[in-house]
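Recall that a protein's primary structure is simply its ordered list of amino acids. Everything else, from secondary elements to tertiary packing, is in principle encoded there. The following example makes that idea concrete.
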Amino acid sequence: MMEHLKENFQALDFVLFFGIVALSLGVGGFFAFRDRKKKSTDNYYFGEGQISPVAVAISISVSYTSAVSFIGIPTDVYLHGNAIGWLPVSILFADIMAIVYHIPLFHKLKILSAFEYLEMRFHRSVRMLVSGLRLMGSILHLSISTYLPALSLHTVTPLDLRWTIALTSIICTVYTSLGGVKAVIWTDVMQAVVMIAGMLATYFVTLQSIGGFHALSESIARGGRITMFRLDPDPRVKYTVWSMLFGLSINTYFALICNQVYVQRWLSCRTIRRARIAVAMSFVPLALMNVFTVLIGLAVYAFYEGCDPLLLKRVTKADQIVPYLMINLFRDIPGMAGLMVSAAFSGNLSTVSSGINALSAMILSDFVGVCFPELKQTKRVLLSKILTFSLGTTVMILAYAVSFASTNILPVAMSISGLFAGPVAAIFMMGVFMPWINYKSVLMGCSAGFLFLCWIQISVLTMPVDKTGWEPLHLSTDNCTFSDEVNRTAVSTDFDMISQPSSAGSKEIGLLGRTVFAISPYLYGLFGAVACIIATHTASLICGFEKPSNRIKRLAVPLFSWPQLYPMCMRQYFDFDQNTGRKRNDSMGSLDTAARSGQ
């Protein structure tokens, strides 16, 4: 079925593709050689704070724009319309929160891990809990990010999917372990050029092929692909303004703030000002790349309107539609197909390398450093590289497991993100903005919230659930003009998984299957965060709230700088006179000691 496509990946395509791979490995080798005498974790993980904010900004943007975005978002738009176009608004929310509150706080505390703050604010047990949740969620996300470009490479080359997954994992692991964060950031800069070129070429060539903007607008209007203004208040409808704005905001807060990948980028800048500049600058390319992924999805729909390759069985999975389009568009232009697949592949290299490097730092700080505080620097660096190889191997194995999934990947990625985003985001929010909460209440409340989300997700997979608000929009083969045998009634496994209500035989869908279990997966993070905050405050009524006299005020930040907006019972927890955005804490050692001794 796909063999005729693989013949179109010619010699020049392979040269361009593997040339970009060689450049990535070369950057890792360069920094490994240049910094061979610097045997410190500060250099390996943070570049000794000497990395340009411009490079950091580009690294942040391309680390977030993974293959899940480059392939998953266009596929989702193709199936469900452009509702995901609200994503840049949620990114702006997370960036503002980072610039105003989190960057000054984390910089002044001089922490190695994002979760080290939670030990200072709450207790070591909270730090270990959240680190474990973040570790599991990140590994699952990285496995999805590895699978998608491997699937693209498999689609357009003779390589078996198992080998493309292995190749993707090995490349990321090798250059990350060699050069540390410097290799990751400067390779991100190079890969950003490839990704942007690929996005622009795919969109504008597709647009030209369908006849321009007017033809595009008419096509998406006929197909009902303008869904981003759907105001339906029903939380069971998968794509609405509310599920996108509020649900995605929690997910992006989790992804961009409660994430070692991005905290590591902030701390690789020497000052708070440089870190803020990096985050502010990162928004523009990040928003533009997300806008173009949505536009690509709309253009792909217009290109295949009335002749859907899924219904034609030209592809076996929805996530193959974008690489299939690339081969169709660029079959007569030598090297362009290789460049386009390289763009998707670069998105994966950036995300997975950043993630592996950050998870290695997190494990070293939150687990190894806690158990072996006297471990020498040379052994820490060696252990860091061993952890990098181990994490790369784990991601490769899980990516192979993901390859057995039959549904398109973006909803799966959002469901996994929501499962971990809700509890983790709630803990960080309560830590920073609600200093009256103590660690016992957090442990009980957020454990309950996480178990609540697990119950929902397991039930969705195992019980009859009404998914009438989840079905894809109309696709057809009515306009096909070639002689392929078309099955107009049989739909691919992707559609069976997405559009049909889940049922076990003839089991009737119960009340929970029509209500709680049927909520949009984009709302999992929001529901989880709200459940955790409510459960934690309920637990505080039993265990007691934190006493103002026991709280170190510099570990909390008021959400509003006007004391009059807070009742007196809350006002006493904050120090409104301090300016956390301008002063570095010179007595960090005593603060850290006091925080830990107070637990």
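The chain is about 65% helix and 0% strand. Confidence is low (pLDDT under 50) at residues 1-7, 40-49, 483-506, 579-599.
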